[in-house]
From TrEMBL:
Name listed for the protein in its UniProt record: CTP synthase
InterPro entries, per database record: Class_I_gatase-like, CTP_synthase, CTP_synthase_N, GATASE, GATase1_CTP_Synthase, P-loop_NTPase
Organism: Prunus persica (Peach)
Family: Belongs to the CTP synthase family.
Domain CTP synthase N-terminal per the UniProt entry, residue ranges: 1-223
Length: 602
């Protein structure tokens, strides 16, 4: 799937390559989904064709109705019985998201299947929530309900009637607008939910709670009296803290798909989780890798200068994964800059591979060192095609899903960040790997491969000795990062970019001598404002303690003591915000930098 067209390809534990929406569900609900939780038209048609070939239909004519629609319903009911939250037994309620727009020909069989399903299971076992856009005319500020009226009418024509309508808009729906939607769409007014633009996406559960959306769903499903009130204290604190952060940390994202931020959605989320845990406001500088290359200096000098200005102004550098040779030389230059200037660096998948290539070229003197992906005939292949990979089929032929990595030493930074575990399980998606025949030469020159697979032949983690933070990983740690449990390597990058890594790592003397309260001179102390001397550091699950978020809260509580802003924000109160536009920075190119907390979903 092309990242430019679909956004990132999210990878699940079982190796399923799915839409990025499943990543949002995993992050919000802290669950582990499977490839079967992703239903596609291709999967359904393939299932029906396989049944027909086996003779399951006994020679009958295979049609969309009933065979395709039955297959969809059977898939839903089967997957709904599979627990995804770590508990035994099926869930009480299964959430089904039907993407697309009402009227799309692609979704017709699914809408028909859901219509049949709702009739078959009964009214108290099916709740339909219709999400609709309510645009606002900027000139007069009027909220227009016609799109919602027409989409509900189209939905009714297809056999489905919504119980709730969730209205997306830039501002909260006015009461007369709610009344109009209720009247024309035949939905009770209290079941019209307004989802307006907020400063960060963690406010959305609070909006739903304040409008009693959960009670409306319980009523439809006849679950009243069997449920508890939502426990959203942590969500409330997290949402408010995100709005209060002001200490900046700048990360340069050097990639080839920088024009579409969704191509790196999980990376952005992981950076946000880590920056909030460290009490910092994240700013991402998007650096197109190709603009760092010498060819751009001749063809477009302004873009070349702007890219290097962003890179040199960043507190840390991150090179994410990717495929193909476009922009590779720019990524290599970014890794070289971070290595030589001792700037914190994190390379993911291809980012690790280009760091190895750069080291071989600059330190070992192998000027033609390369990956066989980019130069099949290179005499010094630092990165090679995996033996089990397919050279003829691209789809689902990579090394996918959760794989185990064993630390080779407990003294390396990555092992310490993961809580001194012996091994970790992270998700992979790659065809190429570091050439094991080159490992000895690279390590003798100062590059340490601190994580390997169970065979010892696959390099999973690379670190540079005597560097503040220079780590590359073959896996994708961003896929398992959660709001309350940031990824270990991302929190390490943010801590290093803020000068806090030594105080954060287990066993550091400096972190035991940090007094409570804000530091008078942050330039002289590698600690966050108000860092507590009892901040939890050890036994970090998934790379970050369950209490890490609470520690960040403690920092901000002490810093914002007496703040009028804080005292005037009620817990969980629904607040109206301006349309989340990117905040441009005065001394930055206008299309390159923005604040994650202003206009960017978390």
């Amino acid at each position: 799937m092309s990242p430019v067209e679909h956004g990132e390809v999210f990878v699940l534990d079982d190796g399923g390559e799915v839409d990025l929406d499943l990543g949002n569900y995993e992050r919000f609900l802290d669950i582990k989904l499977t490839r079967d939780n992703n239903i596609t038209t291709g999967k359904i048609y393939q299932d029906v064709i396989d049944r027909e070939r086996r003779g399951d239909y006994l020679g009958k004519t295979v049609q969309v109705v009933p065979h395709i629609t039955d297959a969809i319903q059977e898939w839903i009911e089967r997957v709904a019985q599979i627990p995804v939250d770590g508990e035994s037994g099926p869930a009480d309620v299964c959430v089904i998201e039907l993407g697309g727009t009402i009227g799309d020909i692609e979704s017709m069989p699914f809408i028909e299947a859901l219509g049949q399903f709702s009739y078959r299971v009964g009214s108290h076992n099916f709740c339909l929530i219709h999400v609709s856009l309510v645009p606002v005319l900027n000139v007069v500020g009027e909220q227009k309900t016609k799109p919602t009226q027409h989409s509900v009418r189209g939905l009714r024509c297809l056999g489905l009637t919504p119980h709730l309508i969730a209205c997306r808009s830039t501002t909260a729906l006015e009461e007369n607008v709610k009344t109009k939607v209720s009247q024309f769409c035949h939905v009770q007014k209290e079941n019209i939910i307004t989802l307006y633009d907020v400063s960060n996406i963690w406010h959305i559960p609070l909006l739903l709670r304040d409008q009693k959306a959960h009670e409306a769903i319980f009523k439809v499903l006849n679950l009243q009296g069997l449920t508890r009130e939502p426990e959203l204290e942590e969500w409330t604190s997290r949402a408010e803290i995100c709005d209060m952060l002001h200490e900046p940390v700048r990360i340069a994202m050097v990639g080839k798909y920088t024009r579409l931020s969704d191509a790196y959605l999980s990376v952005i989320k992981a950076l946000v989780h880590a920056s909030v845990a460290r009490g910092k406001k994240l700013f991402v500088d998007w650096v197109p890798a190709g603009d760092l290359e010498d060819a751009t200096a001749k063809e477009n000098p302004d873009a070349y200068k702007a890219a290097w200005k962003l890179l040199k102004g960043a507190d840390g550098v991150l090179v994410p994964g990717g495929f193909g040779d476009r922009g590779v030389q720019g990524k290599i230059l970014a890794a070289k800059y971070a290595r030589e200037k001792r700037i914190p660096f994190l390379g993911i998948c291809l980012g690790m591979q280009i760091a190895v290539i750069e080291f071989a070229r600059s330190v070992l003197g192998l000027k033609d060192a390369n990956s066989t992906e980019f130069d099949p005939n290179t005499k010094n292949p630092c990165v090679i095609f995996m033996p089990e990979g397919s050279t003829t089929h691209m789809g689902a032929t990579m090394r996918l899903g959760s794989r185990r990595t064993y630390f080779q030493s407990t003294e390396c930074k990555s092992a310490k960040l993961y809580g001194n575990k012996r091994f970790i399980d992270e998700r992979h998606r790659h065809r190429y790997e570091v050439n094991p025949e080159m490992v000895a030469r690279l390590e003798n020159a100062g590059l340490s491969f601190t994580g390997k697979d169970e065979t010892g032949q696959r390099m999973e983690i690379v670190e540079l000795r005597n560097h503040p933070y220079f780590i590359g990983v073959q896996f994708h740690p961003e896929f398992k990062s959660r709001p309350g449990k940031p990824s270990a390597l991302f929190i390490g990058l943010i801590a290093a970019a803020c000068g806090q890594l030594d105080a954060f790592l287990p066993g550091s003397e400096s972190k035991r001598n940090i007094p409570n309260g804000p530091a008078n001179d942050m330039s002289q102390r590698n600690i966050p404002y108000g860092a507590s001397n009892d901040m939890p550091q050890r036994n970090i699950p998934n790379g970050a303690s369950n209490h890490m978020f609470q520690a960040a809260c403690g920092q901000l509580e002490s810093f914002f003591q007496g703040s009028e802003t804080k005292r005037n924000v009620p817990n969980g109160a629904a607040k109206a915000y301006q349309n989340g536009a990117a905040t441009k920075l005065a001394n930055r190119p206008q299309d390159s930098a923005y604040s994650i907390f202003n206009g960017m979903h978390l």
